[in-house]
Amino acid sequence: MSTAPPDIPRGQAQETLLRMLADNVPAMIAYYEPRNLRCVFANKRYAEANGWTVDTIIGKTVREAIGEAAWRLIEPQVERVLKGEKVEYIRPLILPGGEQRIIEVNLIPHFDEHAQMLGAFVLITDITRHQAAEQAIRDSEERMRKFVAATNEGIFFHKNRVLTDVNEAMLSIMGYTREEMIGRYMMEFVPPEWHQTMADYLRAGREDPYEAEVLHKNGHRIAVELVGKTVILNGEPHRLGAMRDITARKHAEARIQYMAHHDMLTGLPNRAYLTERLTTILALARRHGTLAAIMFIDLDNFKTVNDSLGHHVGDALLKEVAARIKQVLREADMVSRLGGDEFLVILADFAAPDDAAKVAGKLLQVISAPIELDGQQVCANASIGIGVFPRDGDNADDLIRRADAAMYSVKDHGRGHARFYTPGLADEGAEMLAQESRLRQAVQRGEFVLFYQPQLNVSDLRLVGIEALVRWRHPERGLTDPSEFIEFAETRGLIDEIGQYVLREACRQNRAWQAAGFAALPISVNVSAAQFHRGELVAEVKRVLEETGLEGRYLELELTESLLIDKEIVGAALAGLRALGVKITIDDFGTGYSSLSYLKRYPIDKLKIDRSFIDDLGTDADDRAIAIAIINLAKTLKLTALAEGVERQEQLEFLRAQGCDEFQGYLAGNPVPAEEFSAFSRA
To answer: Which of 248, 402, 431, 597 pairs as cysteine with 387 (C-beta 3.0–4.6 A)?
Structure first.
């Protein structure tokens, strides 16, 4: 084996270049032949770190070069590289002066074209954690390693800005041959607007990274990160440069910037971007004495479309509505999607509020026009609230808040039209926001509690089930009935969190009763449309059952008839619940969805006769007929019939005579806290 590493260019100048490069990089470099593990090449850092000079270390074995203690430590790694593996490891190094350093060692096998091992490269970097030197060491290590391993970083040398050498990666990035680059003025490869930046960097002798652009041979621009270092070659100063193509990173940064300011579904600006623009538009309107307006747009029937036709249709509807809104607006105006089915429009530079009203009318017209989606026509009506600058506010936040208040007023008064903000709406909106805030805090603070109502067998008054009913321990009003907050929670998107709490707490309490020796009974929990259509109900129930240890057969979920319209979602969900052993009850039966086909199609266990048919059993023949029909229907389909709202003995006697299975109501027992129900069930 020769005394120079294979494949190293020959010639005195090239050898001098290699030596100068090796001795100027912040790394230790050596090359060993594989037969006797003798050193063939070492840079100054490697030799001196092991107590040698670059001349005396040549011919030494690894064991001789680094010492017996270090040899015992790395011998397994050497054996791996001799087997052809590329090895990387970290170890301590004791310098001749006694100082301990931590080094990262790379052992790289070197093969000829016949896969015969010719030797092994040793690349060592000092990675001792000194804050001041850490970044410099890392950068130097990276540049050197990539240069030696011929990675994607371009390496070039120049003197007085004339290129003297380049590596293959540089040629690959630029698209030139070596002959086309060597000897040329480096600024020929740089767009004119970057000449001054590069000249200032070189003139100052800087060695920190910076970004610029270079020109590919075919003319297109390449975003690059450059870093330079002054080195001495053949007694003369040269600049060593490393160049990295950062085109992909720049594209990613541009994409991130776009995503930070735009809605990904519709491509419209988001609220953050709109707020920035609105501040500018208001400043211009203030300067020129013109008007500006905010329009808060909310689609009235989006949830129905989304729940019944699927999210893909809902997404398509939002994109179409966004496109239609843009068609109405001028170049100076702007539309943003806030999220969900809410849009915000800025009207810039108009003379009178009537101008804004006309635009609102056009928007209502184009939004409500039929839309062909997924093979069927869909209509999307909208409610629009308008706030005018400077009449309704002189800043972005006030205008948006007042347009929002006007929009909610539209929803409370028939929907499907537009109205301007008036001062009286502020109090109404503030109260709604305060109520929503109180509800959110109630969820966070755990102010909801469960009460439990018994369900008894009609024939022998035996306890056969329990219904869990939520109550709100309001910090000011005390115990609050669900009729005072459930509907509001549904409109404000809070019912899902409340429903999750009820499900988990009911299962936990039922399991606790069983563990305490009480009879194992099913507990029923109401499920909201939000929980059902979120698509995660089965997984959520499964998780709760596993976490609480309650068997599925001791849980009943109560659904309203209206939930059963969406066959695709309902069928899969009910099948999944049945697989868990969970029973299904149709709540308020007879008051909702008129088709009875679902009773045969779905795995339903119980029909709950609505209290409206029970209240007047003694005086209303129609109510009696409906109650009898539901009981008989349940018998025919082998379902359980349960009557709710039973308060009087004569109602119970009627149900018993008709063969009703179960009942609940004040006659059976009022809803009570868990501790009181425990006493009831024990009795």
So the answer is: 402
Find the helix packing angle between 271-288 and 396-412, rounded to 10°: 110
Burial of 318 (0-12, 13-18, 19+ CB in 10 A): buried
Helices 424-445 and 495-515 pack at an angle, to 10 degrees, of: 30
Rounded to whole angstroms, the Cα distance separating 46 from 27 reads: 8
CA atoms within 13 A on the CB side of 260: 7
Which helix (H) or strand (E) segment is 245 a member of? Answer: strand 236-245
Q: Could you tell me the sign of the dihedral formed by the alpha carbons of 413, 406, 497, 483, in that order?
A: negative
pLDDT digit string, tens, across residues 332-376: 899 999 888 899 999 988 888 888 999 999 999 999 888 887 777
Distance, CA of 156 to CA of 169 (rounded, Å) = 10
Return the structure tokens found at 394: 């002189």
- Of residues 131 and 290, more confidence is placed in 290
**In angstroms, rounded to a whole number, what is the distance separating the alpha carbons of residues 232 and 217?**
30
Q: Which residues contact 456 (CB under 8 A, 6 or more apart)?
A: 462, 463, 464, 662, 663, 664, 668, 669
393-439 pLDDT, tens digit each: 889 889 998 899 899 888 877 788 899 988 876 556 566 667 777 88
- Inter-residue contact 196 to 189 (CB < 8 Å): no
Predicted pLDDT at 145: 46
H helix intervals, 289-416 = 302-309, 311-328, 353-368, 396-412
What pLDDT sits at residue 277? 87
Q: Which residue(s) pair with 185 in the sheet? A: 162
CB-based contacts of 514, cutoff 8 Å, min separation 6: 520, 550, 554
What's this model's pTM, rounded to 2 decimal places? 0.45
The amino acid occupying position 652 is L
Q: Which amino acid is at 311?
A: H
Rounded-to-integer distance, Cα 178 and Cα 672, Å: 88
Rounded Cα gap, residues 640 and 57, in angstroms: 93
CA distances from 656 to 272, 586, 589, 633, 642 (A): 64, 21, 19, 16, 11
Which of 547, 436, 538 is closest to 485 using CA atoms?
A: 436
Q: In the structure encoding, which two tokens stand for residue 154, read together?
A: 């371009």
Looking at the DSSP bridge assignments, the partners of residue 244 are 225
